[in-house]
Amino acid sequence: SGVSADLWWVHALAPDDVFFGGSKGTILRFDGSSFELLPTPSDATVFGIWGTSSSDLWAVGGDPLASGEAFVWRFDGQSWAPPVGMPSVPVSSYFKVWGKSATDVRIVGNDGVIVHFDGEAFAVQESPTKRRLLTLHASVGAPWVAVGGLGSAVVLEDAGAGWQDVTPEQPLKAIIGVRVAGDVGYAAGNGGTVLERTAAGWQRQSLGFDVFQDFHSVWIDETAGVWVAGGDLATSPLVNGVLIHRGEKPPSRQLD
Description:
Layout: E1 7-14, E2 17-22, E3 27-30, E4 35-37, E5 45-53, E6 56-62, E7 71-75, E8 80-81, E9 94-101, E10 104-109, E11 114-117, E12 122-124, E13 133-137, E14 144-149, E15 153-158, E16 164-165, E17 175-181, E18 184-189, E19 193-198, E20 201-204, E21 214-220, E22 226-231, E23 241-246
Antiparallel strand pairs: 1-2, 2-3, 3-4, 5-6, 6-7, 7-8, 9-10, 10-11, 11-12, 13-14, 14-15, 15-16, 17-18, 18-19, 19-20, 21-22, 22-23
């Protein structure tokens, strides 16, 4: 890419239209063969990107150690800029943005902040927690789920009647990644923790083997296979990545 930065998130609209966000205000666009560095309003870290098209994208981020540095930008196909009407919220960072559609977009961040955009206006939603929310996910027909925490976990759900704290009672470390598909949901976090959404609520799953690294992301593929990825980000060199899978055994593939 010709850019030296830590990349925190990727959002693919198509194989030849992919956006990456990271440190130093970095947003890269990949067209299938080359990268373009897009100008952005500041050098704060971009932690999340989501959108419905290359002319309607959101980017969020900030500086978790600096109060009031949280930002939201929108991309109209030409440039990134703060959206008109975004409420001023005194938090240090937003961490993720996601949407069910262009008229149902939500943003989460430090201090349990949740902001909703309905296609016309923004509103700060009532949140049952003051702890940081690191990511969220939803799909059509599925509830919104937001997860986070610091020393211990927090899990929130909104099935249409407002946000509820549904964190399991057993002590859990912070949860960092989440994915839902209909009634199915998985979340994962520090210390190799994996949660599954069941009829009895979110429950910790036994992996059948030890994982000591932290999980950062979850994905449910088109065959209902579950992929969880992460690693040790606190110790250099950064070589202790971990990837686990649940479902039919995927075909073997040599990674380049």
